[in-house]
Design goal:
single chain, binds magnesium ion, Helix Hairpins, binds adenosine-5'-triphosphate, elongated, Heat Shock Protein 90, alpha+beta
Length: 348
């Protein structure tokens, strides 16, 4: 127990008062009523007890009022003061507890400030990225329109070509804006999942079929490693999982080997989840960037992926989808080259 707790202060103070009162009593009775001398204990005890409890009560009341103000300031008023009062009654040093609470509160505030600063940096970078990404198509469109206005519109050789190119830039801007909208919805928690039971193996085959055209354009071959007879019932938002597969297979094709691209999709049955892997034999991802590929707008090789028509938002969306399912996604480089993306899904 601390030396200056309300209890000890009350004890010392009431002892002093009792002593003074006893001396006064002694002097008084000795001078006027010597027969009262033996009544000293009867007089002293109530004085001691009364002063002890009055002092203790006033100190506690005083401290409690001050604590309430402190707790109101640090915004923990609802439960804390009552709890503290209880503790105080059991003899603990209440001021030490308050001191601890204030220290915790200031630590919390420091962390919050650091987080806000990080968010501010993140936002600044994000806005910079968005305007940078939109600048290219906007300037392209401006260029084509100006050329057309400067007489190009009458030149049969370029007019349609330039309009088509301008349209391509508009499409790109739309793609960026749509992806951004999707990410914003995920981050605001507005994206609701429609979970259902479906066969993951069947979905993989469907997506592979859908992506075969694109694979052909890139000289890539898509293969599914799991036999079609096998059934993997997953519990997830089918449409979203489809989107994840399309994105990952699309990347595997785009960043795969230019001459003989090989994309393999496998599903592994673990005890309480399924693991889907999409692996390619392409350029791979430099080790130092592996943990950054899921960031918005992050590209390992800017020129190449922009030429491939990407917004750099695909993996950020994929990660959001998987995390909304409370599942995990990861990436690693293959020893023989290329990279492997894998994600888990809940079993139905
Ligand atoms: N399979 C892969 N092999 C090598 N690099 C990859 C692979 N997948 C992604 N990357 C790298 O990660 C970056 C981010 O991928 P992400 O899918 O987010 O964007 P993107 O493919 O450029 O655009 P989008 O998916 O919007 O069309 C890519 O630009 C590329 O540099
Ligand atoms: Mg992509």
């Amino acid at each position: 127990m601390a030396t200056s707790s309300p209890k000890t202060i009350a004890l010392i103070d009431s002892l002093i008062i009792t002593l003074v009162a006893a001396l006064a009593y002694l002097l008084f009775s000795w001078l006027f009523f010597p027969s009262w001398l033996y009544l000293l204990p009867v007089f002293v005890l109530p004085v001691f007890l009364t002063s002890y409890f009055i002092i203790r009560y006033s100190i506690n009341k005083f401290i409690y009022e001050k604590i309430t103000i402190i707790y109101r300031t640090i915004g923990q008023l609802k439960t804390k003061p009552q709890e503290e009062l209880k503790k105080k009654k059991s003899g603990e040093d209440v001021l030490e507890i308050v001191n601890q609470a204030v220290l915790e509160w200031s630590e919390e505030q420091k962390q919050k400030i650091a987080e806000l600063k990080k968010m501010a940096d993140y936002r600044r970078e994000f806005v910079g990225n968005v305007s940078h990404e939109l600048k290219t198509p906007i300037f392209n469109i401006q260029g084509y329109i100006l050329t057309l206005l400067d007489g190009g519109i009458n030149d049969e050789k370029v007019n349609i070509k330039y309009l088509k190119r301008a349209k391509k830039s508009v499409d790109r801007m739309i793609a960026i804006v749509e992806d951004l909208e999707e990410i914003t919805k995920f981050e605001a928690g507005e994206m609701k999942l429609k979970k259902e039971k479906f066969d993951l193996n069947e979905l993989v085959r469907e997506v592979v079929e859908y992506m075969e055209m694109k694979a052909g354009e890139y000289n890539a071959v898509l293969t599914t490693e799991t036999p079609s007879s096998q059934v993997f019932y997953a519990n997830a938002d089918k449409k979203r999982v489809r989107q994840v597969l399309v994105n990952l297979i699309d990347n595997a094709i785009k960043y795969g080997d230019k001459k003989r691209g090989m994309v393999k999709i496998s599903i592994f049955d673990f005890h309480d989840y399924y693991l889907t892997e999409i692996s390619d034999n392409g350029i791979g991802i430099p080790e130092e960037y592996l943990f950054r590929v899921f960031e918005r707008f992050f590209r390992t090789d800017k020129a190449r992926s922009r030429e491939a028509g990407g917004t750099g938002l695909g993996l950020a969306i994929v990660k959001h989808i998987i995390e909304a399912h409370h599942q995990k996604i990861s990436v690693r480089n293959n020893p023989e080259g290329g990279s492997t993306f894998s994600f888990t899904l809940e079993k139905a």
